[in-house]
Amino acid sequence: MHSVADAVRDASRTAAEHAAVVRDSISEAAPRVLRSASRMSYTSAYMLSYGIVYAAVFVAQSLPQENPVMRTASETARAPRWTC
After folding, report:
1. Backbone angles phi, psi at 24, to 5 degrees
2. Residue 35 phi, psi dihedral angles, 5° rounding
């Protein structure tokens, strides 16, 4: 009977220790998950904006430069800004 009682006591102690380890690893994993999600969203937004700007510049450079629309866009870009 003593060996059965010792086995049950050891099993309950092991289960409690395992629960504590799981609780600690969950509390450590939450900040890692948030950091990873933050880094992924930042990288995705950076890549998306870089892709849009690069594509727009590529399209603008590939269009013929000597036409009224491109001349107006160029002059508008070089025009002085209004200040308030």
Report:
1. -65, -40
2. -65, -40
Identity of the amino acid at 45: A
Whether this prediction's pTM lies above 0.70 is answered by: no
Chain center to CA of 22: 26
CA 80, CA 64: separation in Å to the nearest integer? Answer: 25
Mean pLDDT, the chain, as a whole number? 81
Residue 37, helix vs strand vs coil: helix
User: Tokens standing for 57?
Assistant: 């510049």
Q: What is the pLDDT of residues 20-55, one digit of tens each?
A: 778 877 777 788 888 999 999 999 999 999 999 999
Round to whole Å and give the CA distance between 73 and 79: 10
Contacts of 61 (CB under 8 A, 6+ apart): none
